[in-house]
Amino acid sequence: MEVILTHNKSDFDALASSVAAKKLHPEALVILHDDIQENVRHYLAIYRDHFSFIKRSDVDWRHVTTCILTDTGSPASAAEETDMLPEQAAVVIYDHHPPPKKKLKNYVYIMEPTGSATSILVNRIKEKQLDITSEEATLFGLGIYADTGSFMFSHTSKKDMEAVLYLMDYGMNLEIIRQFNEETLNKKQQKLFHQLLSKQETMEKNGVRITLCRITVPQLEGQLNTVTEKLLEMINTDAVITLVHTRNKSFIVGRSRTRRFSILSLVKPFGGSGHLGAAGLSLRGEPDAVYEQLCAVIPECMEPSTSARTIMSRPVKTVTSDTSVEDAYNLMLRFGHNGFPVVNENDELEGIISRRDLDKAMQHKLAHAPVKGYMSSNPYYAAETDSIEYVQKLMIQHNIGRVPVFGDSGTITGIISRTDMIDWMQQDTAYAVQKKKNIATYIKQYLQPPIAFLLEEIGIKAEKEGLHAYITGGMIRDLIMERPSEDMDIIIEGDAPSFAAAYAEEKMGTVHIHESFGTATVTLPDQIKVDFSSARTEYYERPASLPTVRHSNIREDLYRRDFTINAMAASICPGTFGDLLDFFKGWEDIKEKTLRVLHNLSYVEDPTRILRGLRFEYRLSFRMDERAERLAKEAGSSIKTLSNSRTINEMKLLFKETDPYFSLERLYELDVLDDFLPHAYWGFRAKEMLEHWAVPLYRESWFHYLLCLYMEKPDLLAKARFLAVSKEQKRFLESFIYLSGLPRSFYMQRLGTIHDALSSCRSEDLEAVSAYFKYALSDYAVSEALLDYQTKRQQLPLLRGTDLIAAGMTPSRDFRHYLFEVEKAALNGEMTTKQEALQFVTGRLQT
Questions:
Q1: Is the pTM value of this prediction over 0.85?
Q2: Ordered structural domains, the chain, with CATH
Q3: What percent of the chain has pLDDT over 90?
Q4: Distances (CA, A) of 541 to 19, 140, 159, 331, 516
């Protein structure tokens, strides 16, 4: 016997997920609790006949073989009778709450960080292509809308939205969802709301404001969850905790809008569960004792205030007070900033110059005036130890877009912009904390122990020197894909060459420094190489040019990368070891096998990123997303500015790592083939040549791959001359152009006549042209004639000069003529032996 069970006080997500579970487990019976929320009861009063339920009392728990739980991770929270489950009974859990640290035997945990348990099940129904009725689709939608707050709660995920889109195709009725999902309070709830509102007490610690509302009533009437959410909307606070005592039980419900106060941590000591931002439970106990325990737990759930140092950008780009308006304006364009701190000759802060200030000055034709005349003087600033809330208050009260941050020495050590603040606010939710990723286990599992040890060692050294150190790029990507990696790329927020030199000295290794790029390579005694780079940003003077590099911070360093899958970093410093920095959702793109560029000008700045994208597509079985492909198609003008040598070098790399047919087909699909390779044509003849031409026989196969693109029409070959960069390539191409340009009638002559023109041609040239006639032109007669000529020519010579001397002839300039005529006659089949050749010379050529 299989049963489906959910938690007491069932809400719409509990009911909907139970019904959805039956679609996946059709033999199971759905148990409906007597204790359900009032709006769920109203819904079932109308729609109950569309679904099949049984009561808990109808179940003989001793005969249950499988218990399927939805929207809860604990059988005990669903029904006390589950204690009677046979020891061998299996338990399957579908839940969107955090998984337990200790997993039990015979339990199958299907737990995902979605906003609703129903979403997990609906997406599995979609995968299995199971049919659902419009009534089921509407109920499933109710579960998702209710538990995500109509997609407004912070724990809402992409999977919730995908599930609802799927349900729309099956007749999900939004009017019914609106009717039963309205959050208006009924009379009982309004009474409860006002009772709690009048009995509130507030405590504040580390900048977090918590409101506790406590009342005692004979019986709890109304949904405490809904009332608590309304209180959080009404009260100016970071979190609301409602505590309601009745005759037999106490009920605790919490709601938080900040990650610095975890409701889940609050209820865990009492045996409760839920989300970081929303949870609740009921328990027995003396009311005052429950209250005192709750008050003792609240301070422990408050995280310390985040300091300005944590989110500030560094190093700070500044301008001096005598910098011209035009120069400051150009710097803003280069680095994409909207303002700079202005300092004097002693690096002391004098003001802030914004893009708006510079725009006005430029409009008034004051480009050569110093910025000190247009900057905002007496700027507001913060210390590294100030809280982010303090900085946020400065920005709001004074309507400023950036706040310089000072260190203990009194110098500017960082700056907090609106972008930094928005990023922090987006992360400042309970769900964002829940989603925070750490790859320390990946590092230990997929890297060789010596490499993992080196990372920890470098992180410890960096922290001692007050620096931040990260691994980044390909190593992060490979680890997430659960593949080993040996790319030791370390990013230092600071002076990487100096750090690398000191590290090499400590380890008795060698260091090679590239000062202009802020990079260094350390070779250790065991020949392990570690690449160090200073966190940097880049700007391009013009499209497709090589970048100019400046020191920056880790975020800007990642922003300059080609694709999001390569734009992640992980800390290797103690305390944060393995913490993943994924500003651009690279993790999701890896899981979805998608290549996304970071910004719209990515290909304009560096068109070769398109070719790198193809290498990743082939090597990783990924695919560019629609935006990346569209931007590639629009990058033609930038591609055409690439130098010939750079294009060829990138093509060499492309064909070294990919199948040429795949890459050329993709370049054609993206409509950039003739932008990279002028006049190239990817047609039938090119494809046939590429498929059949034995180009791997050639040392530089990339050259022959590309030549295939110039074989569609006879006159195209001459336009491929720009591809030939070496002396041998130029020789081969000219020979190919000559041979392919001879009239067909020429190859239909006797082989001796052909030999007159082709005797100096190399065998590989003849073989290539034979393939061209066969596969590109489908002219099998010419192809066979060339192969016949080549084969018979390899049997030559029948006669040498020494043979003529041995026959008594005096050496002369005529020898060459005699021997060549012998070759022609042999090719024509007029002789096959040396004796016949001598007779030919003495009998015909000397007379």
A1: no
A2: 2-181 (3.90.1640.10), 187-301 (3.10.310.30), 308-432 (3.10.580.10), 437-592 (3.30.460.10), 801-845 (no CATH)
A3: 54
A4: 61, 54, 42, 11, 17
